[in-house]
Amino acid sequence: MSNKPALLGLLGALPLLGSLPALADTDGQQLYRQHCVKCHAADGRANTMRGWLYFAQNLSKAKWQDNTSDNDILEAIQEGPGAMPGYADKLSETEQLALVRAVRDLRKP
Ligand code: HEC
Hints:
The protein contains seven helices and no strands. The protein has helices at 4-18, 28-35, 37-40, 49-54, 62-66, 70-79, 93-104. Helix 1 packs across helix 2 (28-35), helix 2 (28-35) crosses helix 7 and helix 6 packs across helix 7. The chain starts with a helix and ends in a 5-residue tail after the last helix.
C-alpha cells in the first residue's frame, strides 16, 4: 500500500486553496479527488483501504457503467448508498453534475 493514501490526502487538501469564485468551470476531477478518492480510488476501482472496508463500488467497470444511468449516479452522490456519505447539501447541483461526468470518465473499456 506504501504511502499513497497520505499523498492523496494532500492532493485532496489542495482544491480548498484553489476554490476561489473567480475560477471558471467547476472541475469534476478536482471534486472527485477531494471527496471520492479516499474510498473509490483515483482510477475508480475502489482498491483503497476504505474502499475495501466499506465495499465501495468499482466505478471503472464497464458493465457497471453500462447498467447505470447518469441519474443513478447523481442520486448516489446526493443520497450516499450504504456506507457512502450523501452530498446533497454539501455540494451545489453544478458540482454534483460535474462529479457525474468525472465518474463517467473513469470507465475502462
Ligand atoms: C466513505 C467512503 C465513500 C466515499 C467518500 C464515497 N463513496 Fe461512493 N460508494 C461507497 C460505497 C460503500 C458504495 C456502495 C454502496 C452500496 O451500494 O452498498 C458507493 C457507491 C457509489 C456509487 C454507485 C451507486 C450505484 O448505483 O451503484 C457511485 C456512483 C458513487 N459511490 C460515487 C461516489 C462519488 C462521486 C463520491 C464523491 C463525491 C463518492 N462516491 C464518495 C463509498 C464511498
